[in-house]
Specification:
4-stranded mixed sheet; alpha/beta; about 220 residues; Purple Acid Phosphatase, chain A, domain 2; 7 helices
């Protein structure tokens, strides 16, 4: 049976994301220099280690016949080599079906690398409605009726705020940095894992559609 996976914000090839998100791909000397002055120029070796870990995290879970939804910010590269660089990363992923929901760093020139491409999309998996967007949302279509929302962009940094202000929410950051924070590895989330985490959430309705996350029958 084909399985469905979700991920986001790989930022393949992006040296500074290692500093911005404290990704653990610096060697000891680099970590010491970064701690000392904060202006370290990230080495190509560190970027290569990051890229390899991200690719391995995908290929270790997502099979050739599975489906991977990537919710934006695929890769970073200069304008002249952007398409070729993005294609090389795509070619290293064994999964045949990779779909993208565009992030703020993605150029639409790489559309041909993916099976589907969307600004936002709604899915139905095993009867579960899911809204996919690069950005976290407080309200989305049928959020008061049990629909979920998956997103990225914030690299896990918004989850504590979202939990505090939207208790019981049926949404989650599926990006690689949140996966590392929760699971200890940079990898996609399977639909089954997300189902286990969200199916018991009561929801959080903040508009006229419901109070305190209670479902209502009217639209």
């Amino acid at each position: 049976m084909n399985r469905i996976f979700f991920t986001s914000d790989t930022h393949f090839g992006h040296a500074n994301i290692i500093k911005y998100c404290d990704r653990p791909f610096l060697c000891d000397d680099e970590r010491q220099r970064l701690a000392r002055d904060g202006t370290l120029r990230i080495s190509e070796d560190a970027v290569a280690r990051m890229d390899a870990a991200l690719i391995d995290g995908i290929n270790s879970l997502v099979g050739e016949r599975d489906v991977l939804w990537h919710l934006g910010d695929w890769a970073m590269a200069g304008k002249s080599g952007y398409q070729d660089s993005c294609r090389r990363y795509r070619d290293r992923i064994v999964c045949r079906t990779v779909n993208i929901v565009w992030g703020n760093h993605d150029r639409r020139s790489i559309r041909d690398l993916f099976n589907e491409a969307h600004e936002q999309v709604e899915l139905s998996l095993e009867g579960q409605r899911i809204v996919l967007n690069h950005y976290a949302m407080a309200v989305w279509n049928r959020s008061h009726r049990g629909s979920w929302q998956f997103y990225g962009h914030s690299h896990g940094g918004a989850e504590a705020w979202m939990d505090a202000h939207l208790p019981g929410r049926r949404s989650m950051d599926v990006g690689v940095d949140h996966a590392f924070a929760v699971l200890g590895t940079f990898r996609p989330w399977s639909f089954e894992e997300l189902q286990a985490r969200l199916s018991s959430q009561r929801g959080c309705a903040i508009d006229h559609h419901g109070a305190r996350g209670e479902r209502r029958d009217e639209g």
